[in-house]
Structure formats: C-alpha cells, structure tokens
Write a structure and sequence with these properties.
RNA-binding, mainly alpha, 11% strand, 50% helix, 3-stranded parallel beta sheet
Amino acid sequence: MTAPRVRFAPSPTGYLHVGGARTALFNWLFARKTGGVFVLRIEDTDRERSTDEHTRVILEGLAWLGITWDEGPYFQGAAVDRHRADAERLLAAGKAYRCFCTKEELDAQRAEAERHKSAFRYDRRCRRLPPDEVRARLERGVPFTLRLVMPDEELAWDDAVHGRISFQGRDLDDFVILRSDGSPIYNMAVVSDDIAMRITHVIRGDDHISNTPKQIAIYRALGAEPPVFAHVPMINGPDGKKLSKRHGATAVGEYQDKGILPAAMRNFLALLGWSPGGDREILSERELIELFSLEGIQKKSAVFDVTKLEWMNGEYLKTLPADELLPPVLRQLERMGVDPRGRDLRPIIDTVKARSRTILHVADQVAVRLDASRVRLDEKADQLVRKMGDGFEASLALAAEALAALPPSAWAPEPLLAALQEVAARHGKKLGDVMQPIRVALTGSTVSEPVNELLVVVGRDESLARLGAFRRAA
RNA sequence: GGCCCCAUCGUCUAACGGUUAGGACACCACUCUUUCAAGGUGGGAACAGGGGUUCGACUCCCCUUGGGGCUACCA
C-alpha cells in the first residue's frame, strides 16, 4: 500500500468558509495520520468569479488553522490543455460525442419539461447524428460541446463514510464535459486532475455525492481506477438550513477577527461531524492526528454552534500564557484606539483571560481597565443597579469615602480588602453588597477579578475618579 | 417532478443486539470563596412514527413522515 494522496480543492470564488475549512482539516488530518501527502489545488476555472484576493484569503485561512500542504498550490486553470486532451481522447474513443445543440434550444426544452413537471433529460439527439452530417456541420463551423456517453450501467462505490452508494447510468444525463469554447466543465477538470495528481482518497462535502457517479463514468471511460470517496456531511446554521450570511459569521477570517484561537477553531471543527468515540472534547493537534479516522465521521449534517466554539475557545484561553496573548491583544487595542502607555499588560491579561471567551473580550476588558471612556454598563450590571436602587448609590458612597481616606501607601490588595471589610462590617452589610457596586462603577460589568485587586490595577486616582463620576452620572 | 443522502436531549455527540440510553455546550438550582469568574454537586431534556427479524432492538431489514443535496456550455 503506497502512501495516500489527498487534496483540498477550493474554488476562489469566495472566502474560506467554515465548511471548506473543515473539509480541508479532515483531509489534512487523514494525510498526517497515514503519512500521506496533502495537495492543495485551487479550482479557478470559473474565470468570472475567481479572484486572486480570494485565493490569498483561502491560503491565509489554512495557514492560520495550521493546515500545511505538501504540494501546490496548483492552479486548475493552468491545466486546461490536459483537461481538453483527456476530453478529446474520450471523443476519439467513442466515449464522448459532439453536441451541436445551442444553449437556447436546451434552455427551451428544460423550461418545457419544467412546465409539465417532468424530469428534463437531454434527448441525446446529437449522439445519433450520422457521420456525414457531423462533418457537414463541422465544415460550416457550427459550434459544439462535447458530451459524455453515459453508460446504461450501475455507477456505485463504497463510500468511506456512507457505505455503498449506487446510481443508475440511465438516470443520468449525457452531460457536457467540454464547452463550445473548448474549456472543460468542472467534473471533467476534477477527474483529469485527480488522475494526474494520483489522488487516492477524495474527501469532500456531501453535496458532491451526486457528482460522483458522473465522475466515476469519466474514470471508467478514461480507463482509470477511481479513488476512494469519503463524503463528509454539511455544516448547517441553527435553523438546520445551509450555513449562510444571515446566520452570522461563516468565513474563518471572521472568527479570527472575533478573537478565536486557531487551536480552538481546529479542535471545534474537527469535532463537528467527527468523533474519536467516547467523551473526549479538548484535543491537541497531536491527539487529533493520532485519533483521526474516516470511520469516525458522522453521516448526519451538523449545526454550527458558536456558543460552544466560544466555550472551547475560553478553555484554550485559560491555558495560554499571557506572553502569547500579548501581541494579539496589543493589536486589538490599537484597532480600538487605546494606548497602553508603555504599561506591562501581561498581569492584567493574566487575570482577565480566565474570565474571557475570546481575545476580543480580553482586549475589551484590558481597555476598560486602562481607559475610563471604555466603561459601559452591560445588561447584568444595569439590572443590578436598578435592583439595588438607592442602596447601590449608598454603598458606593460609603466605599468611596473609606477608600478616599486611605493613604496612597495603603493602595495595595491587602489593605484595600481590610478597609472594605471594615466598611461592610461597620454598616452591617455583606461584603458583596459593598464590592459589587465598586466593580460595576469601575468596569461597567458584574464580572471581574477580586475588587481589591481591580482597584490596584485601575490605580488610586483613576479608581476614585470613576467612583465619583459614576455617582454624579447616577 | 426525478435521482441520491440523512434521522439519539435545543445543539455537538457516545452506544457498533442485552446500559437506569453516557458525556459536552446551553439553561436552572445548590455549593465553595465574608467580593467576580472558574470550580464542585444536582436537575429538567433524546432513541421521528409504524411494521418486521430476533429470546432480546437506539443498533439489522422494509414502509411512512420529516430534513437536506443535486438536477447548467457554475464550481
């Protein structure tokens, strides 16, 4: 058994979709697991919609996820001569024929069939054209496409995730393999490339199941052995429908911008439609490779659950040292227009990351501690203020007074805690009733590091200023 | 319409003929911490329906229902 060769073949007509990323990931995991070769092929034969920008973004997205390719990127557009040659070999062998029907004629027939609610199938009239008629049209320069002679036989394969899938050739069209301008149609190009690249396993989306019998027909006509096919399920939005813009972010770049870590994204995507069995959830790249197998792939389509992704990201955030978080956080702060003023942010990041789910969230919290103008009451904080009513104000006033009376030298975690405990005790309040208003006034949130530490992070003057400002605003 | 694929908690999933159908996210309680989060404990929550096969079906077969994909001189 020679080493497997797999490929990921996106078309650069859009950004790297999470579904595409997951397909790429499965191919990559399979290659790494089996010691195989991962080929990247850009299917840019749709000239109208393909752009270099999209290609760049797709490559960047893969790199971000840590998906490295061993060969390529190859560009399908560069191989049209071979695609055409393969199609013409089929013509010469009588496995394909020239079709002189125009697009307009075919569209009319299709519309007619539509009206009768019956299935449109090309009637294969050009297949029966006498040779001299063909010659005559050729001489007249009538444009033609090449169509495959669809054999009336079973076109089946043992899918690595679905088991046996079978189609009947008679249900399929003599589909076009070469356009009238000589350019190849998708299925022709794919098969030609997969043969030329000696691809052994085609791991791709479920939506290609219906292309597979057509491709098998081409393999047979070309006298080539088809690869192993593994059709992985689709990823849907929360409503069970195909993931689209209205479901929110669908491009991996958007998750990168959102502050999702590549390791978390990779882990999450791997578990969408695949399971190692058992209860494992947080898996390192190493474990993923070790455990991966096509048998573990689910047949059913999956719903993309952003909440769980963010939870998982939070798990990764916790284990990541502040040193590694610093650069992305600084970048985000810059985007937000917050100047760290040379402060070492790592201690702040360290306390804040345990309470965060995304890098964006970390940066937000750092910003709030650095810059009073970033303080905004969130929903829960707002509820708390309303719920406590006058008590909120009163508690804040007592605390502010006690804190202001503290000498600057006492502005450290221990003395601050002692002072606040004293305030609570003196007024018969629970410590939380004193702490929580301070937390809200300082950060706008009900969640933060312990308040005495928060006061130190924000600093004496700034803390007192925020407490005062909050009371005036309220 | 035709062809094909799919079906376990709201979501991701485990189970590969014998389990009180397990875990995770989310949600709700309680708990720990004289403050937050995290943590800990507990709770509600699923085998789409109907027929078979079998001593025994979530697991195998068939039908129904419900989702999805494809049906181009797009990829």
